Amino acid sequence: MKQLRIFDDPINLMALSVKNANIPHGKLRPFINWVGGKTKLLPQLLPLMPDKFATYYEPFVGGGGVFWGLAGQGKITRAVLSDIIPDLIFAWNAVKYNPLAVESHLNGHIKHDSRGYFYMIADKQMDDPLEIGARLIYLATKSYRSRITYNGHRIFIHGYAGNRNIPKDKWKGILQPCSLALQNVEIGLVQTHVPAVTGDLVYFDPPYIYSEANYGKKWTLQNYESIRAQCDRLTQNGVHIRLSSRDIPEIREIFSKYTIYPIVSQSNMANKLGYTKMSEVLISN
Fold this sequence. Notes:
By secondary structure, this protein is α/β, with parallel strands linked by helices. Helix content is about 30%, strand content about 20%. It has a 7-stranded mixed sheet, with helices on both faces. It has a two-stranded antiparallel ribbon with strand order 1-2. Strand 3 (about 55-60), helix 2 and strand 4 form a beta-alpha-beta unit.
């Protein structure tokens, strides 16, 4: 197998766990931990993306691993990023417009970090979008398995990861490069239909089928059939489509008319035996 690399670090996909890439400060990378993030899979995903495209759309942006990977390659001139979680959109826009203030808030969270503080901040009523966004970045960093669920217009956390220490300089050199890269990016709540046109690229990274993921309800075949209908419409309009999902027969059946690439992955949901190996697919038109 050819050695895969990301940011000049080798990644052994057959190892028990995929090691985090040592991304240098000043390089673009996700500023928030997110379940299902694709940063570790970039060596496999990026070569399967179009060489050229107009506007980049990502309706389930999460931590934006693929967006940051493409932006780091200089391939994104304009982008539209969206998600269903308002607090997450607040976080992205806060980093875009005021990265220094976000870093200041995060440094304050690091300074006071403890189990009691974590739950106090999680339950605190906030009105300032910047504070709400910075809080979500902190909670996602210290939440058990980095899992946060959005359900009924409310954020639910899944325990405090007391054994995960946050370095004092964790976000130093990260937020400002991200902010610069986001200046020509539109960030907002997810739209019912992606308004992409000929030559654009749409990357879908929805929750795994039968999984609640971050959205508080199980995703079903019907959800994926709805996305497939969008993919069909976009394909007819000359739009580049890429979609990540778990490699199961139901997904292969729904997208049987598309090109399906196998992707080697591992679950973020660690257990006592280590990380769970799993297979994903990248679907392309």
